[in-house]
Amino acid sequence: VIVANRDMSLGEDIHSYSNFSEVVVTHVYPHLTVDFQRHILFGYTDLTFQSLKENVKVARLDTKGLCIERVANKDDADLPWTIPQTHAALGKCLEIDITSVQDKTFVIRIYYCTSKTISGGIQWFAPVQTRDKKHPFMYTQFEAILARTMIPCQDTPAVKAPYDIEITCPSPLVVACSGSQVGTPVKTKLYEDGQEWLTYKFAQKMPIPSYLIALACGDIHRKAIGSRCGVWAEPSLLDKAAEEFSDTEEFLTTAAKIAGLPYEPLWGHYDLLILPSAFPYGGMENPCLTFISSSLITGDKSLVDVVAHEIAHSWAGNLVTNSGWPDFWINEGFTMYLERLILGEKHDEKLRHFHILLGFQDLQKNNH
Asked: Which of 14, 45, 227, 238 has the greatest number of C-beta atoms within 10 Å?
């Protein structure tokens, strides 16, 4: 975790410019188009705010590599804005003048595009870099503070909000997000070149921190692996992935039993998205859509226990979240505890104790 220079005027989270103790985001709604030729997303995001104090003059947001074009209120009237501070790791502070806003709850619309060169949270793949080598592919990875490379936001785990999202992409590509799809994609034409485009809409009703907003776009398809579970992958990998992760439903049932809170009322479905092996993690616990590296597909299920860990995050991390990155170890600590309980229930207690021993040995090694 990169710690900011404390001489800077930051919010209560030292990794964020946002003044969330004065005015807080309560809903996020990006409307973005995926441009594979320029490696950018462009459009606008609507942010719903609630004032927590009287006479708040500005709303400060985190951005990194975003080209801000315009900021407007609910009546489409321009709002003054400025970039008062910049930091190599934290990006730029977007400061919006809200003195003209009279309501306690209000919406601000920000028009912008992302950057091709400063887009650490957005990864782009040419067709030749994908498994089937037919279509381009992109995905996001925002943990810890990279949501700001796609969305102007209060990029801190101290702020949790539900979100809706509309993503437009060229047909026949498919979009998947860390939420539930709303309806069917709407066909449209953006340009006069005859290319058909599709607009997908998703909704995440649970309040989540910005780092759990996630999307992917490419030649991906879904196959059910249970009543609540499915796997997304490129066509040539779909059946193999479905077989490899066929125990996901059992993991989910066991986890809910241990956690004492049923899964469906919280999150609904649980899917896995298989990413290229270049994905730098084994898994990422995006709600409703865990991202998984294709390197975990071995043919013998020897690495599928990673799914138990990511499922455990549904309660430890996604539902109950660390309020700042210095306390991130609590998030992972409780998740590891739940993961080992799941493995002990699924396999046996000896395996759980073995994992505990290995973890303790790692702890001792890293403390010296």
From this structure: 45
